[in-house]
Amino acid sequence: MLAGVADQLVISEEDRPWTVDELERNVRGFDAVLCMLHDPIDLRVLQAANGCRIFANMAVGFNNIDVVEATKLGIMVTNTPGVLTEATADLAWALILAVARRVADGDRVMRAQEFPGWGPNYLLGGDVTGRTLGLVGPGRIAQAVARRSVGFEMPLVYSGRRQSPTLEALGARWLELDELMAESDFISLHVPLTPETTHLIDARRLGLMKPSAYLINTARGPVVDETALVSALKSHRIAGAGLDVYEREPAMAEGLAGCLNAVLLPHLGSATLQTRSNMSRIAAENIIAALNGDRPANLINPDALPGTGLPDILP
Ligand code: DGY
């Protein structure tokens, strides 16, 4: 986290997220705060930041910030959309291929010097080409994942509150989520974390999946009931999962680490040098705009601006 007072810039020296207590202590008196997706910016922190003009999140997701309370307090909140779309879609594809073709299993075997030699049934995985890809959420990252699927000749289905002309132009069919869960061979999650999407993929929906199907999550951990997922993986109720995000990040649900039919990554979706540089530049530009009295390009809560009345954003 990084914050600034007038001409003073303070950067957290600690290579770990701050707790709410630490944030509450450390945000006092600053005009702007550049925060990360793991910083819990709740009412206490926002109240402590009394007088602060902007919390600029260095992420596209902003579920870590209580935007309703920030808006009531007249504090602007911004994110960094767009610049991480392609990197995150690439990583979703890395997980699709890795879990289906047992890339991590193969790597483990080689490092342990346990490769017994080629065998007709050795480390068999699942096909990708021609299999149905289900996208949960029709947004930018889902669309980028869909574009990459064209070379794999995958029938596309998607779910979401709105239909997407972009996805339909790629041949995607809109389905109710339950139908998508049952029809897809790969299910890739691309919804923001909200109260409505928390545990969207629960035990019941995992139970709708084909036993040969894979779940991919590069969105937010709490979208999946991780304990239910561990049961589904352990019992081989589903073929596997590729996860970049976790319900209680950085912790994992008990038993998940032992599920060798899951490929597990430490939230690397946007982790390329270019993407992270762009994210930090955009967060800084949002702060500069706010401090100059301009409207930041990626303002999430325009109702926080003076004279715009009460917030009309969703809780
Ligand atoms: C985001 O920006 O929300 C991503 O999860 C970062 O990797």
Strands in their spatial order, largest beta sheet = 8-7-6-9-10-11-12
Q: Regions with pLDDT < 50 over 5+ consecutive residues?
A: 309-315
Overall number of domains? 2
Number of helical segments with 4 or more residues: 11
Query: Per the principal axes of the C-alpha atoms, what is the gross shape?
Result: globular
Distance between the termini: 25 Å
CATH architecture of the largest domain: 3-Layer(aba) Sandwich
Overall helicity:
25-40%
Any idea of the CATH class of the largest domain? Alpha Beta
The total count of strands amounts to 12
Query: What is the CATH fold-level name of the largest domain?
Result: Rossmann fold
Structural class of the secondary structure composition? alpha/beta
Instruction: Return the average pLDDT rounded to an integer.
Output: 94
Proportion of residues in extended strands: 5-15%
Radius of gyration: 21 Å
Question: Which compounds are bound in this model?
Answer: (2R)-2,3-dihydroxypropanoic acid
Sheet having the most strands: 7 strands, parallel
Helix-strand pattern: EEHEHEHEHHEHEHEHEHEHEEH
Considering the protein shown, what is the CATH homologous superfamily of the largest domain? NAD(P)-binding Rossmann-like Domain
Explained architecture:
The chain is 31% helix and 14% strand. It is of the alpha/beta class and 315 residues long. The chain has 2 domains: 2-82 and 272-304, NAD(P)-binding Rossmann-like Domain (Rossmann fold); 85-264, Rossmann fold (3-Layer(aba) Sandwich), CATH 3.40.50.720. The strands form 2 sheets. It has a 7-stranded parallel sheet with strand order 8-7-6-9-10-11-12, sandwiched between helices. Strands 2-1-3-4-5 form a 5-stranded mixed sheet. Helix 7 (165-169) links the parallel strand 7 (156-159) and strand 8. The structure holds (2R)-2,3-dihydroxypropanoic acid (DGY).
